[in-house]
Amino acid sequence: MGLNIVQCAIQLLVMDGAAVHTLRYFHTSSQVPNFPEFVSVGYLDDLQITHFDSVTRKYVPKQEWMKKITEEDPQFWERNRQLALGNEQVGKSQIKTVKRRLNVTEGVHFVQFMTGCDWDDETGDITGYYQHAFDGEDFISLDFDTETFVAPKDEAFITKLKWERMGEAARQKNYITGDCVKYLKKHVRNGGSALKRTELPLVSMLQKSSSAPVTCHATGFYPSRARLFWTKDGEELLEDVDPGEILPNEDETFQTSVSLDPSSVPSKDWDRYHCVFQLSGDKNKYVTRLDRSKIRINEKNNTALIITVLMVLLTVSSFAVIVLVVFISRRRSKGNTFLA
Question: Whole-prediction pTM value?
Answer without folding.
Answer: 0.74
